[in-house]
Amino acid sequence: MVTQPTVDARTERVWAELRQIPDPEIPAISVVDLGVIGDVRLDGNHLEVDLLPTFIGCPAIGVMREQIAERLGELGFVNDVSVKVTFDPPWTSERITPAGRQRLRLGGFAPPATAPTGPALIGIDQLAVLPVAECPYCGSTRTTLDNPFGPTLCRAIYHCDACRQPFEQFKRV
Amino acid sequence: MTVESAAPPLDTDARAALAELLLSVADDEFVIGFWDSEWTGIAPMLEEDVATSSIAQDEIGHAKALYELLAELTDNDADTIAFGRDAADFRHAALLNHARGDWAFSVARRYLYETADAIRLAALAASSHAPLASLAGKMRREETYHLLHADAWIRRLSDGAADGRERLVAGLRTLWPDAQEIFAPLEAEEVLVTQGLLPRPMAELHAAWQAQVAPVLQLIVDDLPAAGPSVDGRRRRTDDFGWLHREFTTVAGSEAGATW
Questions:
Q1: Tell me, what CATH number does B238's domain have?
Q2: Residues A81 and A135 occupy one common structural domain
């Protein structure tokens, strides 16, 4: 008799597989550590995955959907995969895991600035842009924002005044 | 794209009204995105080449997501809505009929558009149509960057050399009346407001926008004329837009069903 893995074990297997899928634009980080996987629902052999885009116009969304559907479709207990793009909940910088922030640094990107806490933070205007970044090369915070817009929608350009290297930061949204 | 909604299904009138609203916002984002993309490669400095290209990509991305909501509502296809219509069938505000112009003209338009869009998005984020509310909430986070960009440039040009300031003033004078049309009344607005699809009427949003930007613009432009939205504010088209429309439909027009 062949024993079937339980739903929980199978869901955990799905998450383990997702942790192996790199972000197409920044392959140093997985889609799970980036926080773009909102939810995973297994109904019999049908698998549904919620994908939360970092930016609405991100051109990598299509590639991500294909890669996720392909990889998860190879799991023995999955017949078909539907990857749904949703903005509920919205992806925010806080969704990047601590491990993901470390992976970004190792990949040469500064992680998004963390939100200031306390009563000073009131509205969405203060939430978005904090011109603070830690150099991924030398760790200095003596850095200058060169451009809040960068080579992809999710990246800003900084300069490190300590080691004199330009670098990019994953933008805060 | 599939967005699930737990809300009760909309009746025929509400669907038509919502379709009109979605089309107006989507066309605004789509057309300003294409005008901005006209700066790619020729902006006054490298940073602005990157910035305007990035902003253009954001706006076209927002338009795509809105067209997809509309496509789902009307059983159509987002690409067909975006690229399969005649120029006369676009419903963007008259502000977006003008060609790119010089840099100061583009800054003037960005400032007028972004400030108005922010007020509209705040309302849409409270829409009773859940997929629209969540999309608008997400858009607001990205638009904050655009707003800061427009704000920085309008300060820079208005405080800077005479040439830049004069060009900015000329741009604001030309665009101010047409900017009002972002809040032009929608045909089925009563249905939209009654059902909470658009939680606040356009006239109210317009008043909130004017109260915010008019005092700022009065510091830059002498004798800023009184202006307000008109009923055909989203139906007037120009030769400039005809040119842009031919540009952005070139690929779709040369091969049916082309994807890129």
A1: 1.20.1260.10
A2: no
The per-residue pLDDT for A11 is 96
- Are B166 and B221 a contacting pair, CB within 8 Å? no
Residue B163 lies in a domain: yes
Q: Is B215 exposed, middle or buried (0-12, 13-18, 19+ CB in 10 A)?
A: exposed
Note whether A15 contacts B: Cβ–Cβ < 8 A: no
In this prediction, residues A34-38 reach a mean pLDDT of 98
- pLDDT band for position A3 (50/70/90)? low
Residue range(s) defining the domain that contains residue A145:
107-170
The residue among A5 and B185 whose pLDDT is bigger is B185
Are A120 and A150 members of one domain?
yes
Domain count, chain A: 2
CB contact under 8 A, A149 and B55: yes
pTM: 0.93
Complex prediction ipTM: 0.90
pLDDT value of position A125: 46
Pairing outcome for strands A46-51 and A37-43: antiparallel
Provide the phi-psi class of B9: left if phi over 0, else alpha when psi is between -120 and 50, else beta: beta
Question: Across the interface, which of B53, B58, B135 has its CB nearest the CB of A87?
Answer: B135
Interface residue A88 vs chain B (CB under 8 A): yes
- CATH code, A25: 3.30.300.130
